[in-house]
Amino acid sequence: MRGYIGRYLAGLAAVALLTAGCGGGAAEDPGAAAGAPVTGGKLTWAVETEPVTFNPHQYAQAKARLLVWNSFEALLTHDEKGGYVPWLAKSYEASSDGKAYTFKLRDDVKFHDGDRFDAAAVKANLDQLLVPGYAPGVTSTQLKYYAGAKVVDSSTIEVDLKQPDVGILDFFASPQGAQISPKSLKSPNLKAGGPDVVGTGPFILDRYSKGQEVHYKKNPDYHWAPANAGHQGAAYLDEVTYRFLKESSVRVGALTSQQVDVIEGVPATEQGLVKADPNLQFSQHLNSGTAYNYYFNQTRAPFNDIRVRKAFRDAVDVDGVLQGVYRGTATRAWSILSPSGPYYDASLEKTYGNDPAEAGRLLDEAGWATRDADGFRTKDGARLTVRIVLSAPFVRDKRDILAQAVQAAVKQSAGIDLQVKVVDQGTATDALNKGEFEVFDNSRADTDAGAALTLIVPKGAPINRHGFTSPELDAQVAAGSATSDPAKRKEIYTSIQRTLTDNATLLPLYAPADQIAAQKTVGGLGFEPTAGVPGSAYNVWIGK
Description:
A hairpin with a 2-residue loop joins strand 16 (377-379) and strand 17. By secondary structure, the chain is α+β, with helices and mostly antiparallel strands. The chain has 15 helices and 24 strands. InterPro entries: Peptide/Ni-bd, SBP_5, SBP_5_CS, SBP_5_dom. This is ABC transporter substrate-binding protein. Its main location: membrane.
């Protein structure tokens, strides 16, 4: 494997040298060549990730977000500064004690099946989310303090909380808070979603071929876009087809040969080619939420010893690994939170890592002082082995190659045997549920840092697979969700980041980013405010 990584990184370096001197590049406004918006036409968009479900309540893949917002909508959306803009709601008001929110709803919205959107529909969605086993990750985090909802009248709903939680607004602006037709909530295919599970969005999902593509047609009645959507009225495009092309070289090849109009997920090795093509445009944006992190399972050996956790962290030259895999296109992370967010603690930068001597000292001290014939550290005859299991549907940005590069680094620098497996979702879930891992990877594209931390940090949280808990941390996460004061939230989240760093709970790697490349005839492409992921096709057109 070490030889393979060396050859791979050398190949990347050669590509970088070939593309570094290329001219061209995207214009300051990548879509300027498309001209003024044009109504009509069919667009084909190649995407890296096929959704595991089309039900927004079950949403878990950041790469699927652009599909969710084609056919589903929420009460609120975000502006560029992380604030809230009315969408299906016309307005909202919080009670003086922060334990109730009253939403005034639009009265001119219809679901794709013809049913009217109203307060009863919102309550039906909330009731469905509380059904045992339906969306446990939502009820244990985003709706953790939800106490109930009251239909005041057809256009007014009151949401009550057990205690103040500003995160409830983020929920009502998230895919999990998107509105599904009450009729669809009774569908036998509800969890999987698809053509018979409908929303109110500008497009209607009418055809899905597993493993191949999903097709949307324009909702001709649509006229309730939020104020920051780019335009009002129906979508410009008549149809959009998303093709599932996992391999980046295949996506780029489909774009350069004009088989598709747009692609997302353009790796470092292909960006020079795209930027140099005068017929193409390129843009990118950092995601919000958390960084892409490796978390250490502290509930079992060897990472129940903080010295081993710190040694693993010190054994990796993250900058070097990222340069090798992403050729200068990745943004280094130093904390659980993405450096693109307002609560990121920049003081953590360069405070740890890339210290093989210290890694060796810590492992010697922890009793891993001997090595076997393959150069791996041992103790009492057992090899220092740790496992990471990657779920294939969630592998993006060449994270499998990144894992192999980290694998080579920890072996060379510290004699740690990192075993990497890329498996199907069921196998990965089973391994995680059984605790058959020592490292797990995760990134979140949550628009609110508090939502991400609530999922990962507290005791019993859905993604707290690292096992590190403390009453103080739990209280801090709760306090961050209870206040809307940015200064107080910054203070709280800074403390959490430093605690996790001191505990060596994780190894931050990079801030996830999304890239879009397209024919220059395509206009209106962009990224979702705050989240930084590609936007839906609502504002997209094909120029004449």
